[in-house]
Amino acid sequence: MPADEGERWRVFLAVEVPNAVRAALREPVAALQPLSASLRINPVERMHLTLHFLGHLPRTDVEHLRPALAEVVARHQRFRLAARGVGAFPGSGRPQVLWAGITGADLPRLTALQSELGGALRASGLPIDDRFHPHLTLARARRPPRVEERKRLGDWSARWEAVPFGDVPADAVRLVRSQLGAGPPRYTTLATFPLTIGPLRNAPIAQPG
User: How far apart are CA 99 and CA 165, in angstroms?
Assistant: First the structure.
């Protein structure tokens, strides 16, 4: 670790996405390439199921968070989610974020874990956003889409809105550092907090609607 204790790290908490899901998302992500003038497309290799973005913290603060985070995660059993369909925040008319959805019968387990982690972070003095819509970010808007781009986005959404992309087993939470620079962000896992070993159920995938 760097010796400079005044150094600040950009960090977040996330569940790892399986390679099979990343592979399944390559086609819908590739289909967004003609819209790259209006979208900043997220390569599948950089996708995570983010639970909390902690912002830029002093390195020593990041170290001090580890015991509290490990304690919270250890109180939760492993569970299984699924990646399915696509959508947009705040809506398809003027999207700011395009995403693949996270669903499944174990979704309440994810929500409970995320909420309890948020409580631990707030107890440590961090301002935490309570809003949580689990998703995988596929792209972010560079600018509002033009008329022809909105039509293409509508076709893209109709094509992928209910397509299953695979299971997302949750067996650990990762504390990840994101380093920004001239190229793509570089991610480094600082700590891995295992969920309690228990039955990893084949949870039925929730149907849309």
Answer: 12
Q: Which amino acids are annotated catalytic?
A: 48, 135
* Ordered alpha helix ranges (H), the chain: 19-30, 59-74, 107-123, 147-160
Sign of CA dihedral 19, 24, 26, 28: negative
Indicate the pairing of strand 79-89 with strand 97-103. antiparallel
Cα(149)–Cα(92) distance, integer angstroms: 11
What's the mean per-residue pLDDT of the chain?
A: 90
* Residue 167 and residue 67 in contact, taking contact as beta carbons nearer than 8 Å: no
Distances (CA, A) of 121 to 64, 66, 130, 142: 11, 10, 11, 31
CB atoms within 10 A of CB 131: 5
> What domains, with CATH codes, occur in the chain?
8-194 (3.90.1140.10)
ω into 204 cis (within 30 of 0):
no
State residue 199's pLDDT score.
53
Q: Are 64 and 124 in contact (CB under 8 A)?
A: yes
Mean pLDDT of 171-175: 97
C-alpha distances in Å from residue 71, one per residue of 26, 53, 54, 142:
36, 19, 18, 39
Ramachandran bin of 125, using left for φ above 0, alpha for ψ from -120 to 50, beta for the remaining angles: left
